[in-house]
Amino acid sequence: MPIVEATATIAAAPDAVFAVSQDYYLRLKWDPFLREIKFLGGATEAAIGGQVWVRARNGFAMTVEYRVVQPPSHVAVTMVRGPFFFDQFGGTWSFAPAAGQQTRATFRYSFRTRWPILRPLLDPVIRLVFSREIQARVMGLKTYMEAPAR
Fold it and tell me: E strands, 27-149, where?
């Protein structure tokens, strides 16, 4: 499965970065990928088994389920429902301490497209789009966290 990853060093402690990354009200302020995001089934916070529906700015929507929630170090999700061209999708966000009360944030996604015969054509295009999106997302979090007045 193709993997796309982006990393940034953020001038904030991991617990603060993790908290902002999982606060869905704040998420709409810093995450350039999202148009809408909401918990499903009565959930109100990230928890194993909890599901979240997201709509990207490009119009595509996906429902993901939390598989790992370990504050303040990482979360992992897998796709339950999503765009027709994905057979599988998963993502992890990791937050590791770095020198000087900083955090090394790493966003990593893996995916498998639906049609094996088209993968040589589709996968590079999706990887390119995701590379841009994931870099913009991690940099959006960095910019938000390092802003003088949030």
Answer: 34-39, 51-56, 61-70, 74-81, 86-98, 102-113
Question: Domain-by-domain residue ranges, the chain?
Answer: 3-146
Lowest mean pLDDT among 54-58, 63-67, 146-150: 146-150
Residue 46's nearest CA partner among 29, 62, 31, 27 is: 27
Domain 3-146, classified CATH 1.20.120.450, yes or no: no
Question: DSSP H helical segments within the chain, as ranges?
Answer: 14-21, 24-30, 119-146
pLDDT tens by residue, 77-103: 999 999 999 999 999 999 999 998 999
Structure tokens at 81: 């429902």
Task: Tokens for 54, please give them.
Answer: 């997201």
What's the pTM value of the predicted model, to 2 decimals?
Answer: 0.92
* Crossing angle for the helix pair 14-21 and 119-146, to the nearest 10 degrees: 120
